[in-house]
Specification:
Blueprint (H helix, E strand, L loop, with lengths): L1 H14 L26 H31 L7 H28 L9 H32 L4 H4 L2 H18 L3 H4 E4 L4 E4 L4 H44 L2 H9 L4 H7 L1 H24 L9 H19 L1 H8 L1 H43 L1
Antiparallel strand pairs: 1-2
Helix pairs in contact: 1-3, 2-3, 2-12, 3-4, 3-6, 4-6, 4-8, 4-11, 8-11, 11-12, 11-13
Length: 372
């Protein structure tokens, strides 16, 4: 049970972002660990043991399919597909980091409490979360341009610019979150990964950087997502309301599809993506901001809420493929075509194997008859 307490503390300190719930320490060279959190309930332990692992595995497989569809099918043509493929990579990385933490916490596989992986997992937790949110924000900004100025989108939102934005955000995420590798380490008996507590200046610097991270990683992207999603939804409602009039329907029968018509066909997918992200991620972000305060003390009920809200974030990264299947007929068709193609190739390979085996058996029979 002591291993479980230490692992839970490590998960709270690093993976869940609760890094600042410590008392003011005098400047000394002696390491003073934080007080241990209360013992988790059996229901919480069981939930984390199975729900997290299943969600991570299913989510990684789903994100691999999303990346394949947006990079190897005809859906790769628009610039938005580049952002969605990059977001699938970021979500997969985040789920992989969470799975490593759960493997050690619940299955006692030493992955997180090792020098090197400890720093990498902490860095990945912050960097992949940053990229996942900002890639979705870039998609929303691009869709807003397409909804407001559909004829100018072909010039303003190109594949080359999308690649540049993706690369720039990746570089920013790597550079800005390298500091996390300097603040964490493996210590304690049994060893576990959490912050160094031997210098008050280190802790003060970590608090300042955590507050900046809360603004850059939570406040700004969520505010942009909320405002632009509301504007896109209102604009889509106006467009569909006008299209229901008799005169508009008559005119649409006589003219070809305009860029505006094409743009509004994909707005339900974007609205559903942004809405699910806001609903599932804001509670965890709010409680992480709450833990920055000096007087925060984790309790049994608070630990339960933190685990549940963090699971919502993991779930948000894992259910993207379900959202695509529900809101995009083109995505569902491409998945159907891909599976049909794989089935055809598999059947063809089986037929070729049977034919080869039949020819081999026939040649062996002829050879035996010749010897006789």
């Amino acid at each position: 049970m002591d291993d479980l307490i230490n692992a839970t503390l490590a998960s709270i300190n690093v993976s869940l972002g609760v890094n600042d719930n410590i008392q003011t320490l005098p400047q000394t060279t002696q390491r003073v660990p934080p007080p241990p959190p209360p013992r988790p309930s059996e229901a919480l332990v069981t939930f984390k043991k199975y729900a997290y692992l299943i969600t991570c595995v299913v989510g990684i497989l789903g994100n691999i399919i999303i990346f394949f569809i947006f990079t190897r099918t005809k859906l790769k043509k628009p610039s938005t597909a580049r952002y969605l493929a990059a977001a699938a990579i970021a979500d997969s990385g985040f789920l992989l980091v969470v799975m490593f933490v759960i493997l050690e916490e619940s299955y006692h596989v030493r992955v997180h409490s090792v020098i090197g992986p400890c720093q990498l997992i902490t860095f990945g937790d912050h960097a992949f979360s940053f990229l996942s949110r900002w890639y979705l924000t870039a998609v929303v900004i691009e869709k807003y341009i397409g909804v407001m100025w559909p004829r100018k989108k072909t010039k303003m939102c190109t594949v080359f610019r999308a690649k540049c934005v993706i690369i720039c955000l990746a570089i920013i995420g790597i550079v800005c979150y390298l500091y996390t590798t300097w603040f964490v380490g493996v210590h304690g008996k049994p060893p576990f990964c959490h912050l160094f507590y031997d210098d008050r200046r280190v802790l003060d610097s970590w608090k300042i950087l955590t507050k900046l991270d809360a603004v850059v990683n939570f406040v700004i992207p969520y505010l942009i997502l909320f405002v632009l999603t509301c504007l896109i939804s209102y604009r889509s409602w106006e467009f569909h309301r006008r299209s229901l009039t008799a005169g508009e329907r008559f005119l649409r029968r006589r003219r070809v599809t305009t860029p505006e018509d094409k743009e509004f066909k994909t707005t339900p997918l974007l609205i559903l993506l942004a809405t699910s992200t806001l609903i599932l991620s804001i509670p965890n972000s709010a409680i992480r901001i709450l833990t920055i305060t000096d007087n925060f003390q984790p309790t049994q009920s608070m630990m339960l809420m933190m685990t549940l809200f963090h699971y919502f974030v993991v779930l948000n990264s894992a259910i993207k493929i379900v959202i695509y299947l529900i809101a995009s007929n083109a995505f569902a068709r491409q998945i159907g075509k891909t599976f049909c193609l794989l089935k055809h190739v598999w059947k063809k390979s089986d037929d070729s194997e049977l034919q080869t085996r039949h020819i081999t058996e026939k040649m062996e029979g002829v050879a035996i008859e010749g010897k006789v």
